[in-house]
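Final report, Chapter 2: Outcomes

The project's central promise was a pipeline that accepts a single protein chain and returns its three-dimensional structure in a standardized token representation, suitable for archiving and comparison. That pipeline is now operational. To close this chapter, we reproduce one record exactly as it appears in the project archive, with the input sequence first and the structure output second.
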Amino acid sequence: MRKPPPVVAALEPALPPLRAPRRRRGRRKFRAGIIWLFCAACGIGVLILFKPGPPAAPKPAALSPSPPPPPPPHKSSKKPSKSADDDKHPKKPSKSDDEPTQLRRQQCNTKIVKDVGGAAHFPLLASQSVAKTRMFHAEHLLSTDGLQLHRLPTSSRLDDNGFGARRSCAVVGASGSVLDARRGREIDAHDAVARINVVRTAGFEEHVGRRTSWNFFWGHKVHLDSFEEATRKLPPARRQIGLVVPVKALDVTFFFEAAANRSGGGGAPLFLASDRVYNRALAHLCKATKSGAEWPTESPFMRPSSGLLAVVFALQACRNVTLYGLTNPKPCAPHHYFDAPPKPCTTAVPAKYDHPFHWFEREHELYAAWAAEGRLTLAS
């Protein structure tokens, strides 16, 4: 590089610095503005890109699948098996009025059941006055047309038909509970001793006594024949009075057949109990089962047992009534005192006695309630 001339070099300190041309200065400012705008745009973009948003909503938990609906219950018409606990505390049926419940309710709502159930007194013997009603009101109505009504007594009063003193009456059932104590002499000491279904007493006298004043049974031909055979062997003074309770229409028919066959005399006295006895017993059973809404089986009708019929008769006929053998036996005791003990021990009713139209346990509860009210004495 060439050095400036000396004159110029001497003058250089005094000269002001040269300025860049105006065009070059404008280009520099333009480039600086472009760069500033670019950086500002980048900064804004970065802020927008990384700006925190609202908190994310919690992710819903996965729903577990709902269990399938249970299958509809299978309705079976088979009667459930009974256990000892079921007999002691029978299960109540459903409250829905199925057909059997409706039929039992109809049975309880008949006029004669309501009338006799609320009556203070009612006739105990069927007499010739039944011709006025022209009907026997049992489980089914039976017309009196064609029946030999002259074989009935003219009066329904017990005093007019040789029933004797009745200040104290013992009603002796066949339950194995009678074996719990030796009450034979106590039973025989009553004015009248009523027994049920022509049961035997031989061999059990110390528990059930020897005497029998009245014997209650349905009018089935088997019972009528058993009564005739049992009483024919006895002297007249010891012959018991037979009382046929008209539960079914056949009971009435068989009674009149038996009465016709005995027309020659010589047999034990045989009477037909008034149909009011049956309807009074049914009224008690209806009240105790809420008009049949509570019943342990699917039976379309209820039937008072011969034991309940005898108790209802005695409560009307006697001043003081004591019951024997009309409670539930102990688990190892026989169902009937003349039966063999059960094996294994159980309080379940044996199959041959377990009729769907009877409810012995509820009848026993009735006796206990009457004893608590002072209407009778419950000995066993």
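Archive annotation: The two ends are 152 Å apart (CA to CA).
This record, like all others produced under the grant, will remain available to the consortium after the project formally closes.
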